[in-house]
Design the sequence.
């Protein structure tokens, strides 16, 4: 888990701005759900023998209640819980949402893999058409283009629906049955319950066997095939380059039809920038009628690595226009108030709150803040009605009217901006 501050936080804010501006220009609105959910939100939906449900959830206990709560490991199931709770699917037409939220998974930490990480996600509900799938993929690509990330690949697949999947599962089982003893222990368990999940296994022996396994794309029924062809046509129309990868099944149970992933070589071993797909059947896992839905989530930290690889961070620290150097107590009173007033107007100033400091000490502080000017004010200046304004870089100085300080400094801030 990371602390995020300093220059890094500027990059996070930049990313968040690009995400939000892009999504809002496509008509998406933000949704924020709590970090804690009942355990069933995920255990009933994501799939029993997925890593997330089996071993990655953080359970939170309260002293008073027996209810089992977990820290949200992924966004979509929590989103669907909120949709059903607030009947958002009843609103007329398709509904579009985005979120930017921390996710929690117990993982072995490594570069680009954290226990608290952040996902930016979009969800489009109430539209079953391939155009909806094409739209969200186009939005993802727009974000990549806006950020100037060019080294990426989009891979798409269809994982069929509840009609075509049983046929495919049988074909997979027929294929793996003679090799059962060669599969890893976990996959031997998956063989009966969820043979498709073997396709995701990272064990080298399993991965080798997977190479010649039957493809889901050869087992799609006519409506699923039509949907998938429709998506491919739309992506081509929109100029979105993609490759077909029949091996993309996505880890989670609730996907149907479209599944896709954006990967980037900029990331090294953890190459996934983000991915998503269609999840029309998720609402049924909550005991509700199906709701057509499609979405994706991208890893913020992965985007930061990709951006860093492309262009290393450059400091963007705001410099104050003026450092206030009061030479006595009345000047301190006056400059403190002036500094607050200017900053309320958005003009950054700096001042040390230590009292009775000598000029030399004050000038050193002024240097450290990187202020463009230093304003000196003491008894002599008050008598003459003029304060001293030093331009730090040039080492020059001038006298300015004390009665007009606020206006003069505001004017300098405008001309330096
Ligand atoms: P998933 O929900 O597993 O499909 O993840 C969606 C995206 O979130 C991935 O493509 C990654 O970019 C990112 N991601 C997933 N797990 C982690 C993690 N532990 N640490 C950082 N990013 C992650």
Sequence:
């Amino acid at each position: 888990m990371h602390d995020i501050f300093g220059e890094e936080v500027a990059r996070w804010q930049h990313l968040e701005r690009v995400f939000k501006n892009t999504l809002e220009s496509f008509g998406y609105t933000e949704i924020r759900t709590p970090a804690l959910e009942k355990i069933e939100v995920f255990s009933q939906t994501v799939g029993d023998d997925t890593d997330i449900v089996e071993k990655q959830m953080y359970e939170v206990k309260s002293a008073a209640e027996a209810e089992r709560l977990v820290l949200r490991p992924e966004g979509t199931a929590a989103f669907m819980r909120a949709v059903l709770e607030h009947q958002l699917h009843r609103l007329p037409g398709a509904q579009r949402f985005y979120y930017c939220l921390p996710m929690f998974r117990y993982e072995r930490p490594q570069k680009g893999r954290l226990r608290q990480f952040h996902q930016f996600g979009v969800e489009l509900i109430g539209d079953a058409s391939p155009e909806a799938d094409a739209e969200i993929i186009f939005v993802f690509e727009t974000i990549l283009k806006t950020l100037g990330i060019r080294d990426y690949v989009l891979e798409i697949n269809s994982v069929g629906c509840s009609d075509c999947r049983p046929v495919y599962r049988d074909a997979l089982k027929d294929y793996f049955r003679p090799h059962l003893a060669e599969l890893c222990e976990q996959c031997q368990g998956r063989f009966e319950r969820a043979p498709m999940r073997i396709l995701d296994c990272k064990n080298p022996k399993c991965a080798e066997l997977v190479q010649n396994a039957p493809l889901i794309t050869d087992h799609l029924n006519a409506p699923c095939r039509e949907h998938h062809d429709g998506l491919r046509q739309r992506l081509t129309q929109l100029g979105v380059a993609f490759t077909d990868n029949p091996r993309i099944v996505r880890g989670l149970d609730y996907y149907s039809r479209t599944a896709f992933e954006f990967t980037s070589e900029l990331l090294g071993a953890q190459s996934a920038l983000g991915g998503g797909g269609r999840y029309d059947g998720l609402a049924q896992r909550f005991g509700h009628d199906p709701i057509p839905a499609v979405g994706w989530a991208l890893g913020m930290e992965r985007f930061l690595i990709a951006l860093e690889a492309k262009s290393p961070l450059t400091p963007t620290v705001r410099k104050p226009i003026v450092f206030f150097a009061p030479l006595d107590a009345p000047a301190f009173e006056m400059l403190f108030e002036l500094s607050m007033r200017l900053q309320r107007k958005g003009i950054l100033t700096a001042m040390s709150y230590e009292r009775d400091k000598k000029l030399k000490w004050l000038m050193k502080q002024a240097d450290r803040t990187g202020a463009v000017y230093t304003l000196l004010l003491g008894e002599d200046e008050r008598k003459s009605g003029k304060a001293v304004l030093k331009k730090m870089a040039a080492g020059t100085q001038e006298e300015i009217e004390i009665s007009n300080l606020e206006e003069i400094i505001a004017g300098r801030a405008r001309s330096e901006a």
